[in-house]
Write the structure tokens for this entry.
Amino acid sequence: MSKAIDIGRLEKSRIELQSQLDEVKTSQDRNRLGQFATPTALASDILAYARGLLPSRGQVRFFDPAIGTGSFYSALLREFPRGRIKEAKGFEIDPHYRKPALELWKKTNLHIDIADFTEQQFEPRFNLLICNPPYVRHHHMTTEQKTRLQQLSMESSGARFSGLAGLYCHFVGLSHQWLAPDAISGWLIPSEFMDVNYGQALKKYLLDKVTLLHIHRFDPNDVQFADAL
Ligand SMILES: C[S@@+](CC[C@H](N)C(=O)[O-])C[C@H]1O[C@@H](n2cnc3c(N)ncnc32)[C@H](O)[C@@H]1O
């Protein structure tokens, strides 16, 4: 990336774009694809925290498998020197978000594929994965979808998710294969997995298959996604 960009202005445009795009969707549609964007300050906090976990001068290959308009990519640009960002890639299933996002980020090195992340061949080279995966409950997934995802998550990460696991569990499972050795992987997910039976497999994955560095559990009274209530 060589061209100068004004990241403050870009983030302002992204926020405006996000609310315009959200506004024309029904809440049922947004629920179906788990479309609730991460607020700017929260995205910045997460990327700043990740920066402290990565080697201080190393290059970053960033990946967000559910990128939306790119709130985490935007935070990456705010929190990391541009010279360190070797590559950035994301998937977005919905052209409604992806097309304007492409236009917004066209002067940067972000590559967005319009595709279902769960159907992709993995590319195990990313050392920074940050994701707010779609929160789609299992009731909204077909039996075929669940069986396919259970199989793929198992092959990718060894996690045996039950049929009650939401799509976000499979995003964690499938992402495992996209990580380079020593990658940092950060997930913004509902804390319910810590308390319910279907969460056992995710807890086991976090304890046995990766080095669990940090869990931040938000106060349930401090709502992070006011539009997802
Ligand atoms: C919770 S939003 C997060 C968006 C953005 N990363 C953020 O944090 O603001 C999840 C995004 O994943 C997209 N999505 C849902 N299912 C997907 C899939 N199977 N593959 C790729 N993207 C998907 C949704 O359209 C939505 O934009």
